[in-house]
Amino acid sequence: MKRVAILGVGLIGGSLALSMKDKDVEIIGFDIYEENLQKALALSVIDKGTVDLAEAVKEADFIFLSSPVGKLFELISFLRYTSLKPGAIISDTGSTKGSIFEWTRDFQKKNVYFIGGHPMAGSHKTGIEAAHDRLFENAYYVLTPDSSIPQEVVQSLRDLLTCTKARIVVLDPAEHDRVVGAISHFPHIIAATLVKQVGEYNEHSPWYHRLAAGGFRDITRIASSNPIMWRDILLHNRKVMLELAEDWRNVFDEIINFVKEADADKIETFFREARDFRDQLPERKKGAIAPLYDLYIDVPDIPGIIGKITTLLGEKDISITNIRIMEIREDIMGVLLTTFRNEEDMEKARVVLTEEGYRVYSRE
Ligand SMILES: NC(=O)C1=CN([C@@H]2O[C@H](COP(=O)(O)OP(=O)(O)OC[C@H]3O[C@@H](n4cnc5c(N)ncnc54)[C@H](O)[C@@H]3O)[C@@H](O)[C@H]2O)C=CC1
Ligand SMILES: O=C(O)C(=O)Cc1ccc(O)cc1
């Protein structure tokens, strides 16, 4: 049986541990707060818990570091000088990848391997109570192995992580920080600045607070995230944040100038271009937070098929919340992704469609 050590049993460490529940692994948790370990044991998230770091890692085949980014250096410094199992694979879950990559390149001298990792799903909630076995389902899970790490070592980490049902991808750490900086880190600055701006106005009129709804809530949801976590992320992706701020200022000035000049066409084009890009973003098939009930249907030809399937299901009172053409194969075979409101509708649809001769399945 393989041993997995999770260092930091919060939302992400706890969710990783839960996703491994059906695997033949023993999970040992370490945290700086004993009460977190007690909760994790009570919730059966981990098999054992300890506040002794050396004890947690000494027999482990896999070690996951899932503390805030600012604490990773401390943990890595400890691992560098403590006794570890030869061949052990260490990974982290931190939201930035460049700095950790630089700190860990020499681990192979110790006959252990470090492969940076970032499961790209989460929540603005923190702590073990928010952990969920399906948190990473369908999300990207980025790995940033050094090119000197043998492929079979990377593969054994990938094999273990299949239990998360995430889409595992390999990226260069600098590219990770640039891209994730733009789509995840920098938006937290924007969200927080908007909230602070309105918070200050609210000092003078409570109506800001009362009327804030809809769009304001949507765009500022992430401002409710953990301040310590986001402090650390910004500090570890500073260069990228400063570059993005410059670019953002340029785009911001552009629209403000159109407003100043009352240029209706340019304002409209600005919004239209933003909408077009936004509407093309891939929808994430949700895992734990709001499970989607998806069925994939192989269909012989596309024209007319969507109407045929919606009619067929509509006649049985089965409603589809979304239908999307996933791919058209060269032999004119297509795959439709149909989403249902609940499991019952999905299962009814599976029966009806199978009876009609369609090949229906749950995963790509
Ligand atoms: N929250 C999110 O949505 C996501 C977070 N991440 C990353 O995963 C990591 C963990 O985040 P969360 O689980 O959300 O935070 P969390 O606050 O829920 O959990 C962190 C845990 O680490 C423990 N901890 C603090 N210092 C420690 C140390 N020196 N040694 C061991 N444990 C320590 C804390 O007591 C806590 O139990 C962070 O690096 C974050 O950047 C990655 C993807 C998503
Ligand atoms: O939607 C949200 O609340 C998030 O922003 C989740 C998140 C937070 C940090 C990450 O590194 C990846 C995902």
UniProtKB/TrEMBL annotation:
What keywords are assigned to this protein? Answer: Amino-acid biosynthesis, Aromatic amino acid biosynthesis, NAD, Oxidoreductase, Tyrosine biosynthesis
**Which EC number applies?**
1.3.1.12
UniProt cross-references to PROSITE patterns, sorted A to Z: ACT, PDH_ADH
Tell me the InterPro entries matching this sequence.
6-PGluconate_DH-like_C_sf, ACT-like_dom_sf, ACT_dom, NAD(P)-bd_dom_sf, PDH_C, PDH_N, Preph/Arog_dehydrog, Prephen_DH
What chemistry does it catalyse, as a reaction equation? prephenate + NAD(+) = 3-(4-hydroxyphenyl)pyruvate + CO2 + NADH
Q: Which NCBIfam families match?
A: PRK06545.1-5
Question: Mind telling me what this protein is named?
Answer: Prephenate dehydrogenase
Recorded source organism is: Ammoniphilus resinae
